[in-house]
Amino acid sequence: MKRSLLKRGVRFACRTIRDTVRFARDSSRPTFAKAEPGELVRLMSPVCSTALFPHKEALLALAELTLQHRFDLLGSGWVDLACAEPAVLNFSNRRSARLLRAQVDSAYSAIDWHCDFKSGYRWSERTWHRHVRFGKVAGVDVKVPWELARMQHLPRLALAYGLNADPRYSAEFRNEVLDFAAANPPRFGVNWICAMDVGIRLSNWLVAYDLFRGFGAQFDSQFRATLTRLILEHARFVRSHLERRGNVRNNHYLAGIAGLIFASRYLPRTRETDNWLAFATGELIREVRHQFHADGGNFEGSTSYHRLSAEMVFFATAVLTGLPDPPELPAWYLERLDRIADFTRALQIPTGSVPQIGDNDSGRFLHLTPMYRKLSVAEARSWYVHLRRYEGRQDSAEFWDLNDLDHSHLLQAGEALLSPETPNNLEGLVIRNLARGCSCAPRRTHAFEIVGTPLTIEEPQGNPVTVCHLQIGSSKIIHRAFPDFGVYLFSNREFSLTIRCGGGRGTHAHHDHLAIELHHRGEVLFRDPGTFAYTPHPSLRRRYRSLAAHAVPYPLEEDSSTPVFHAAEAGYSNCLSLGQNHFLGFGHYGGDRQAYREVRIQGGTLRITDFLKTATVVESPETIPYSPGYGKLSCEWVRGGQVQTEEVAQCVY
């Protein structure tokens, strides 16, 4: 014990000394990199119009909003983020920032990159990145400036340029990149805290720039040299700040690796970029084995984080495939990628969305296909609780609402990467461009059929409680099992049932042992309530994550002292029996709270029954608005995972 404390003390002292030296260095001289010779590599050919036209209305509307500097981030609604005054930087970087600002068009309005505009809180651009503090002020969300600074709207702006070659779009891309660089010198401000966000930003810059060039846009030589330097700065930061502590790593580390692969592919080739590429290639292969189970599910216990990490893997693999001398990827790696896509395909419900299992922070790597629906502002206010006070636009004005739960683009990316067939959609064409027209291998098919276990390993015991009894017709039952992730699926033309049971429990898993999501004849009966928020609202974070918010046998409240991020440890569950028409799971919820949940399909009916071992059940289900994405609250209410037909008056938000 003493030796462990001593080691931790030594590490802390070394880290403090190292940070002190680096802070002194960065405060005394410019942190911008010196100009490097050479230009960024071009990979993209024009995306064909047949893939663009189905999204024409959305792409052009979103492009106009970008020109107006109106952004909808994490449920904010479309907010104007133009600011009158440029950022005031630390002294050592002011001259370099002025030179960058001088390249910006005079008519351009700067963006405030450092503000959580939802709360009004602003971080100083003069604060060294290791000294920035967040997550301590109630209602303030650091994810808002991070989301904006990922600049995932720029590739869509480039796709809009492909529709009409509007020079305003290419000028906006150029000005935003220069504006960001002038207001965010390397290693200063809130947008240099996480290597993950830096890696995502550089990848989006590169893809947007390459798409613009593929569509014929021209940029001046000064900007081209500046962008090369900015990518180099970003990549060097990522390499020296990868988010890994020993063997502990997750999607943050994976984003850094993907960013390094993009940077090393696009930058002029040097010994430094070759080292990055060799390192990142090996790490990507290792991380796919580490972060994705053999059944294809992601180890963090979340379907939304599965999507985020899978995007990183698919796009980074496409870049590697398109190298002049591509690495030979292991057979198991390609099979795992196929299973990653198959996991999402199997989870799709009749509406095309996927169930929210675990956290959903609406995170993306590249946001290319516009998964939006067009509403009016009045309709948006009536659909969403969090937009009731949304102002600034007329009721009849357009409101483009993002569907965070449509993961079909991921299937398109996986198909383009793993199938030799020519894609005809945005995701697939960009993937194939990055891969220089190649695919990894012929797509492999996997049965993934449920292997029936003995009908009963343990007879369910306890007080029976019928959860539901439905008529589901006589059409064939489709059944899938992903035991490593911990989800079991049953469906036919009439219904779709998702059961959460067992599997890995990462920091983004919820307390949802034996929880169900059930759709029947176009109606949602049970569903996961979502996530809504992390650090700005810790109490709501715990409520949405708790057993009480999910359709479980024992809807119990969560301890208010639990951290915002921690591995889900409220009990455990496992599958005892499984077959084509039945499921039996056991859940332990602490103390004497134990239950069996049985699913039986027989004679055209679906029956779900709980067997509770505790004679007296004290229920405390949460009644909360359904959250279909981070920061979003719909007008649909769920009580203990059960969808309510009417708004429940006693619900307190």
Topology overview:
Layout: H1 2-28, H2 49-52, H3 56-67, E1 70-71, E2 79-80, H4 94-102, E3 115-116, E4 121-122, H5 143-149, H6 153-164, H7 167-183, H8 195-214, H9 221-240, H10 251-266, H11 271-291, H12 303-321, H13 331-347, E5 372-376, H14 377-383, E6 398-402, H15 408-418, H16 426-434, E7 463-471, E8 478-482, E9 487-491, E10 495-500, E11 516-520, E12 523-526, H17 538-545, E13 572-579, E14 582-588, E15 594-602, E16 605-612, E17 623-625, E18 637-639, E19 642-644
Antiparallel strand pairs: 1-2, 3-4, 5-6, 7-16, 8-9, 9-10, 10-11, 11-12, 13-14, 14-15, 15-16, 17-18, 18-19
Helix pairs in contact: 3-6, 4-7, 6-7, 6-8, 7-9, 8-9, 8-10, 9-10, 10-11, 10-12, 12-13, 12-15, 12-16, 13-15, 15-16
Average pLDDT figure: 88
| Portion in strands | 5-15%
Largest sheet: 5 strands, antiparallel
**Structural class based on helices, strands and sheet pairing:** alpha+beta
Shape: globular
Strand arrangement, major sheet: 7-16-15-14-13
List keywords for this structure.
Glycosyltransferase; five-stranded antiparallel β-sheet; globular; disordered C terminus; 653 residues; alpha+beta
